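Dear colleague,

Thank you for sharing your sequence with our group. We've completed the structure prediction you requested, and as agreed, I am returning the results in plain text so they can be pasted directly into your records. Please verify that the sequence below matches your submission; if there's any discrepancy, let me know and we will rerun it promptly.
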Amino acid sequence: MKAKIFVRLKPSVLDPQGKAILGAVKSLGFENVESVRQGKVFDITLGTTDAKEAQLLLERLSQKLLANTVIEDFEIRLENH
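Please find the predicted structure tokens below.
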């Protein structure tokens, strides 16, 4: 089974990298872009076909390692279930 985990800063947290990217976007002439928030994507392959087991494993992995849950949210998407 494959999964993607998306990690993003919580909406209330300032995103200086996103602001820097927005500045570059504007300097390239993309004036209709109003905001940018950056994040991370993890592509993970699991040795299980059980969706519930995979979901629990990925939630624990995200909370313990992949996301700083004080300032970041995460979203898990299972691809082969």
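Summary note from our side: Strands lie at 2-9, 39-45, 72-78.

Kind regards,
the structure core
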